[in-house]
Specification:
ten-stranded mixed beta sheet; five-stranded antiparallel beta sheet; globular; alpha/beta
């Protein structure tokens, strides 16, 4: 064989590209890190990349760039555009679902369902990849996010509800699902009862305690910041709240000590929130913060050799574009003309709103010069003074006129700030809601078996399952075993549902053995604890949570509970 040919063959082996593989050929790994920048469209990434490069010429690329490998078509069960609840649900369960549904089987919408649905399964909780890894392989689990903890995406991993807004159902499920490490927002949503459960089961719990989280060396931890959501990264006080990169590193540090491996979901939650607010500053800077967290995860994965990282948004948002038709000649503007003013912003729209509400009206222009690099026009100042939620306006609330600023912006103070800072750019928005375009897909796998090309949201779930050596059928089997209807599980027993005593409590299911009165179960929903015995003197600890659905007055629970009635 000629030397030149040998050299070419060796070179081909050395630089062998990552290969797309059929699902059954995915090489299983010990650890999986799923990273979700909520509501991130491709234009958001481009805007963030340009901003980073403009501010630091030594950083022309993002941490995710070498790992971009395809796109994902993400949607609801009955609509091409989805919100965070059903879209992340599908990544986690393999079943598309409806707007607002958290890892729950959708109601049938005949004629509109994108894939066939089974009406008999409506409202059934669906086992997630996180739950499957924990139940079948003893994986440690973790959640990192910047929203409040019962919010849609973290909830999709560890809870079940047909209504993403039912925090009173979702929050206790997340606590009782025994996730090893939880770091994010929502101090006010963790009740004393929930904290008592965590502490009683070996967790260290930190509320707005950055030093405590940093010093913690235990294996199980909840660390929460902010009454509800955490601050945008650009507005964040680094002495009070950690960055999402630090949160990710802390979670990995803890989870990587577990012998059976781990599943970690990291969400850049507030890219989506900024997109809803049409705030390009919040979108770009929170995505860059998320990208730094991706860098931390990828660094660990490359060094560890047993970890796969999948990075994918759940949906697009806002229809943002770099270029706006009323910005004359935008397509020939230089890099400076497009990004210099944008690079001067030191606060998000929300940060500017909070700042302007904290200073006297006389200092507003100086504040804008300092934090935004410009002064307000007379029209903008008039719009600010007539804004209903501007606290320091010289105009009394009852005398403010919306029609005085309707030509500029007639919404909230944060919305006004977003409008003002966007007007100094050539960026544009088509909506303040979600959008239906495909989203990017990036991945790292130690053996390079990657999900390349266009994948559906169902196929992405299958890939995540395969990374643990599982299949979607594995999830279906667990769903049948752990989320069966109580009417079917206990068909041979006497069942009574005791109504909730008040709006803050839940119904209770009492199950009795008709022949042996000592054999009785007392089942409270949204928990992994079942009481056994006539007086409830014994405690049964489940590896899953019991879910109650009021729509059909049904408890969904493990089939194995009948063993305790024999």
């Amino acid at each position: 064989m000629k030397k030149g040919l040998v050299f070419l063959l060796l070179l081909a082996i050395i630089v062998m590209p990552a290969r797309a593989v059929e699902q059954e050929n995915v090489k299983p790994v010990k650890n999986v890190i799923l990273m979700i920048p909520d509501g991130t469209s491709l234009a958001t990434i481009s805007m963030a990349r340009w901003l980073q490069w403009y501010q630091d010429p030594s950083k022309p690329k993002l941490n995710i760039d070498p790992y971009l490998c395809g796109t994902v078509r993400t949607h609801s069960s009955n609509a091409p555009i989805g919100d965070s609840a059903p879209t992340t649900s599908c990544y986690m369960t393999g079943q598309p679902s409806r707007t607002g549904y958290v890892s729950t089987y959708p109601e049938s919408d005949q004629g509109n369902d994108i894939y066939p649905t089974d009406p008999a399964r409506a409202f059934q909780p669906l086992t997630t990849v996180l739950e499957a890894g924990k139940m079948l392989q003893g994986k440690a689990t973790g959640l990192v996010f910047t929203c409040e903890f019962p919010h849609a995406t973290p909830a999709d991993c560890s809870a079940h509800s047909y209504d993403r807004g039912k925090y009173e159902w979702i929050a206790p499920q997340m606590v009782h699902n025994d996730v090893n490490v939880v770091i994010g927002g929502g101090v006010s949503l963790l009740t004393k009862e929930m904290e008592d459960y965590l502490v009683g089961n070996g967790y260290n719990v930190y509320r707005n305690d950055l030093k405590g989280m940093r010093a913690d060396t235990g294996s199980k931890m909840w660390a929460l910041y902010g009454d509800k959501e955490m601050a945008y990264d650009l507005d964040r006080d680094p002495d009070e709240q950690p960055s999402i990169e630090e949160m990710t590193r802390k979670a990995i540090e803890k989870l990587s000590k577990e012998p059976n491996g781990f599943f970690l979901m990291v969400e850049g939650s507030k890219v989506d929130w900024a997109a809803h607010a049409n705030d390009p500053v919040g979108m770009a800077t929170d995505f860059l913060a998320f990208d730094r967290a991706c860098g931390a995860a990828l660094e660990f994965a490359r060094e560890n050799g047993e970890t796969a990282v999948v990075i994918v948004p759940d949906h697009g948002n806002s229809g943002i574009s770099i270029g706006r038709r009323d910005c004359k000649g935008y397509d020939t503007l230089s890099k400076d003309q497009l990004f210099h003013q944008f690079s001067l912003y030191k606060l998000t729209a929300e940060g500017l709103a909070n700042k302007v509400n904290s200073i006297p009206n006389s200092e507003v222009q100086e504040m804008f010069r300092t934090y935004a690099g410009f002064e307000l026009t007379p029209e903008e100042l008039n719009a600010l003074n007539n804004c209903e939620d501007y606290k320091n306006s010289p105009i009394p609330v009852g005398e403010r006129r919306k029609d005085d600023n309707s030509s500029l912006y007639s919404g909230s103070l944060t919305g006004l700030m977003a409008h003002i800072i966007t007007s100094r750019t050539c960026f544009g928005f088509t909506t303040g809601g979600h959008t239906g375009e495909e989203v990017f897909l990036a991945a790292y796998h130690p053996q390079n078996t990657l999900p390349m090309g266009m994948r559906t949201n169902i196929e992405l779930n299958e890939y995540l399952c395969n990374l643990f050596g599982l299949t979607h059928d594995s999830l279906e089997k667990l769903t049948d075993e752990h989320f069966a209807k109580h009417t079917e599980v206990f068909k041979d027993y006497a069942c009574e549902i005791v109504p909730a005593a008040d709006d803050k409590s839940f119904p209770t299911l009492i199950v009795k053995n008709k022949k042996n009165k000592k054999k009785q179960l007392t089942i409270t929903p949204f928990s992994n604890i079942v009481k056994s015995g006539k007086k409830g003197q014994d405690e049964i600890r489940l590896n899953s949570v019991v879910v109650y659905v009021d729509k059909n007055n049904t408890f969904y629970l493990p089939e194995s509970l009948t063993d305790f009635l024999q």
